[in-house]
């Protein structure tokens, strides 16, 4: 049987990433620094390579990294004709404080040098910078600032770390990457990610144990029990001390402007009426309240749509969003639906989207019962134009920071409404992920239950506004052959009571 690749898949993906700046949040002891030593040795050994400057936060890390680089160099053999490893003390410029460094010099003339973590150590350097366990450095922000200067002449920067608190500069860097504030490459390697890529099998191979699925499961549980309360942070990339409200009231309120919120609440039993009755009554409401607002939209602006679905208990909220020439988005109005049948939710969504000038894209909550409306909307407007969103932890982890950044950067305006403000307060950080927990509910001004519905509608509309789509032009050919409006609407009946206008 042939020997397996030396680097595991997640290590291979990291080494293969050629981004100018790459960042990884990781579990303890998954071998990222060891893989980085592999890359550093290859880079320094190449005739067209570059120096590597490794910055750990203590002497032991520096020594271990240089030892790993030396081991890789010896393993390559052909890549290195001469190699020396030694400890050096030197003075940097006019600074009289001595700097302890460990260095490997290759036959190519390039070096791998491990430095202490003072930002000034990188002054005047060129090459590949590796900042290891970044969350634990005393002055990470200044260290990053110094490292970024190396990019100007073709250098690269690698930032590697486990988490050390939600308010740590490393976690803030991760949030900025997810929010799209900085164009860096981001990797994430939890213990389970590493196990899925063969970490425990590699441990068994190295320690001459026999691998079984049962042994791997037992090993995983033993590691988690060792870390106990710190397991989430140390093993699963969830920064500690994370909890509570994600968006401050002051931030959300500062982005609110005068804009209408339309509320339609239908009585119990409305869904039992004939289709024509239901259609006509909702159509009359749309024509009276929604159509005038749609008519006020700027035909030169691009428009998007977001929808968070609810049928009983929670609300459905439909959110149009306009994008001006300066790329600032605003919600010109939003529609809240309580106890509205599926078919009428479809009727309302189509009424709005059909009349949005330069409609570009929409994002629909496609979980559970919401999957129906998401699917028929995609069928009507195109599968590339309508995103059917299965809300998940990974989706929240990626999208919520972008939405928060839009509010922080004043790129988004929302209707000034107490219930909408309260819904944004339902977004909480749960195990490091901003989301709306299933058990968080509030009571609206109408006395009805809410579950952050309007906030999620706005998040989905914002998500849609970031889709890379182009406008299309078309001319209606009228109703399709064989489609009978009367058959679609059904029989007649009578009931005109509709609450919540």
Tell me what you see in this structure.
This protein has 501 residues and is of the alpha/beta class. It contains 17 helices and 21 strands. The strands form four sheets. Strands 9, 10, 11, 12, 13, 14, 15, 16 and 17 form a nine-stranded mixed sheet that branches. A hairpin with a 2-residue loop joins strand 18 and strand 19. Helix 15 crosses helix 16. The chain is elongated and about 85 Å long. The protein starts with 8 loop residues before the first helix and ends in a 12-residue tail after the last helix. The C terminus is likely disordered.
Shape: elongated
By secondary-structure content and strand pairing, the structural class works out as alpha/beta
CA gyration radius, whole angstroms: 29 Å
Q: Which percent bin holds the helix content?
A: 25-40%
Oligomeric state of the chains present here: single chain
Mean pLDDT: 88
Low-confidence stretches: 93-97, 478-501
Percentage of β-strand residues: 15-25%
Ends distance: 73 Å
Number of strands: 21
Can you count the helices? 17
Itemize the secondary structure elements and their pairings:
Blueprint: H1 9-16, E1 21-26, H2 32-45, E2 52-55, H3 59-76, E3 84-91, E4 98-105, E5 111-115, E6 128-132, H4 140-148, E7 156-161, H5 169-178, E8 185-189, H6 191-196, H7 199-207, H8 213-227, H9 231-236, H10 249-254, E9 256-257, E10 261-265, H11 275-295, E11 302-308, E12 316-323, E13 329-330, E14 334-338, H12 342-354, E15 359-365, H13 370-381, E16 386-389, H14 393-408, E17 412-415, H15 418-425, E18 428-430, E19 433-435, E20 442-443, E21 449-450, H16 453-465, H17 485-489
Parallel strand pairs: 1-7, 1-8, 2-5, 2-6, 6-7, 9-17, 10-14, 11-15, 13-17, 15-16
Antiparallel strand pairs: 3-4, 4-5, 11-12, 12-13, 12-14, 18-19, 20-21
């Amino acid at each position: 049987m042939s020997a397996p690749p030396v680097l595991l898949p997640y290590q291979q993906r990291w080494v293969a990433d050629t981004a100018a700046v790459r960042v990884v949040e990781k579990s303890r002891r998954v071998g990222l620094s060891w893989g980085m030593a592999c890359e550093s040795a290859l880079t320094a050994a190449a005739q067209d390579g570059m120096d590597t400057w490794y910055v750990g936060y203590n002497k032991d890390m520096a020594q271990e990294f240089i030892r790993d680089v030396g081991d890789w160099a010896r393993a390559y053999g052909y890549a290195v004709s001469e190699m020396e490893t030694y400890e050096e003390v030197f003075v940097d410029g006019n600074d009289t404080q001595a700097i302890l460094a460990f260095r490997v010099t290759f036959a190519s003339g390039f070096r791998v040098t491990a430095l202490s973590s003072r930002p000034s150590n990188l002054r005047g350097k060129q090459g590949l910078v590796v900042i290891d366990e970044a969350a634990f450095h005393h002055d990470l922000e200044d260290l990053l600032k110094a490292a970024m200067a190396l990019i100007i002449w073709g250098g690269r920067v690698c930032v590697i770390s486990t988490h050390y608190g939600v308010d740590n500069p490393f976690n803030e860097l991760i949030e900025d990457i997810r929010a799209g504030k900085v164009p860096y490459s981001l990797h994430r390697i939890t213990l389970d990610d590493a196990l899925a890529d063969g970490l425990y099998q590699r441990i068994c191979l190295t320690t001459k144990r026999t691998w079984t699925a049962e042994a791997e499961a037992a090993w995983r549980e033993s590691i988690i029990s060792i870390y106990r309360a710190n397991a989430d942070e140390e093993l699963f990339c969830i920064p500690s001390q994370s909890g509570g409200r994600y968006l401050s009231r002051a931030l959300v309120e500062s982005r609110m402007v005068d804009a209408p919120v339309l509320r339609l609440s239908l009585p119990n039993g409305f869904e039992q009426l004939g289709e024509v009755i239901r259609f006509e009554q909702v159509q009359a409401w749309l024509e009276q309240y929604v159509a005038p607002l749609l008519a006020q939209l700027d035909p030169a602006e691009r428009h998007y749509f977001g929808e968070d679905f609810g049928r009983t208990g929670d609300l459905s909220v439909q959110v149009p969003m306009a994008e001006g020439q300066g790329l600032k988005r605003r919600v010109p109005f939003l529609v809240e639906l309580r106890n509205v049948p599926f078919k009428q939710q479809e009727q309302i969504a189509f009424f709005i989207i059909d009349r949005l000038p330069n409609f570009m894209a929409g994002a629909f909550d496609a979980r559970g019962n919401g999957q129906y409306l998401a699917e028929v909307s995609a069928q009507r407007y195109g599968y590339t134009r309508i995103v059917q969103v299965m809300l998940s932890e990974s989706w929240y982890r990626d999208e919520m920071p972008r939405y928060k950044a839009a509010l922080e950067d004043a790129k988004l305006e929302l209707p000034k409404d107490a219930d909408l403000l309260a819904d944004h307060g339902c977004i909480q950080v749960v195990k490091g992920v901003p989301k709306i927990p299933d058990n968080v509910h509030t009571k609206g001004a109408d006395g009805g239950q809410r579950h952050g519905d309007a906030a999620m509608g706005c998040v989905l509309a914002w998500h849609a506004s970031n889709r890379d789509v182009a406008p299309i032009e078309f001319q209606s050919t009228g109703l399709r052959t064989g489609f009978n409006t009367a058959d679609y609407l059904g029989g007649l009946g009578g009931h005109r009571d509709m609450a919540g206008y």
